Amino acid sequence: MPKRKIIKIDEEKCNGCGLCIPNCPEGAIQVIDGKARLISDLFCDGLGACIGHCPQGAIAIEEREAEKYDERKVMENIVRQGENTIIAHLAHLKEHDEEGYLKEAMQFLKEKHLDIPLESGPAHHVHGHAGCPGAKITEFKKRAGSGHAPAGHQESGLEQWPIQLALVPAFAPFLNDADLLIAADCVPFAYASFHRDLLRGKVLLVGCPKFDDTQLYSQKLTQMFQNNRIKSVTYAHMEVPCCSGLTPLIQSAITASGKEIPFRETVISIKGERSE
User: What are phi and psi of 53, to 5 degrees?
Assistant: First the structure.
């Protein structure tokens, strides 16, 4: 096994603050058992973008035997973390003149039908911007009627995070084998039984067909349908005309994916009444 430069984390100095994590463009670090740890040699390029962000001085570069850095493995890892993380990684490669790895990354995105913009101007520093912490992929599946809710309290039917369509990466693990509920963002406010009647057992995506970027939604949904096994899609929207704008977009995305995915609509009146 060849020697190369790679990060080393001093566990005695590390206090598990996690500040290194958003500053690792490869997603190579995680906090495990209260300490930052390199999860795989394959993910560390040895450039040390994380070093200056450790307040404890626990990270250094060493030269040792390690598996060769694998750009495709890195891309498989970070596509699950969202578009901001991908963009940060591409900028990191460009900033360090890693043209070979950059070409590999762009080829990977092309193969996966992911259209991620790469800025053509001068590379910019992205430290601290490797993805919004509020967009971290999380699954917390619950069982209907689990009995954990206090008497008279209705449990949330939400099983994952994030939910905003623009933030959910096309390779989010919770999308595979999912019954998908796409909800116009006014629906949960208007329909009192949203969690019980519509959301339970489904993966939720939320958006506004009037004010959001529907072209982005079209591309994102097509990618999701192409790259995951989606069992069904339900679109819940308000009765007002502008809210039905996502219906043809979703149907076109299903067609463009080349898959047969059952689709249905649920319409909510402005008085909070439901009709199919």
Answer: -105, 10
pLDDT at position 125 is 37
Domain spans of the chain? 3-111, 153-275
Got the DSSP string for 227-267? HS-EEEEEEEEESSGGGGGHHHHHHHHHHHHT----EEEEE
* CATH for 3-111 (3.30.200.20, 2.160.20.10, 3.20.20.80, 3.30.70.20): 3.30.70.20
pTM over 0.85: no
Q: Identify which of 34, 37, 40, 48 has the alpha carbon closest to the alpha carbon of residue 9.
A: 37
Cα(34)–Cα(82) distance, integer angstroms: 25
pLDDT band at 63 (very low <50, low <70, confident <90, very high): very high
Sign of the alpha-carbon torsion through 206, 210, 212, 218: positive
CA–CA gap between residue 190 and residue 270 (Å, rounded): 7
Q: How far is CA 261 from the centre of its chain?
A: 22
CATH number of 153-275: 3.40.50
Encoded tokens for 156? 């949330």
Tell me: the pLDDT tens digits for 180-218?
Answer: 999 999 999 999 999 999 999 999 999 998 888 787 788
State the pairing for strand pair 263-268/230-238.
Answer: parallel
C-alpha separations of 215 from 211, 221, 222, 232 in Å: 12, 10, 11, 22
Token code pair at residue 53: 């962000």
Helix, strand and coil percent figures for the chain, each rounded to 5: 35, 20, 45
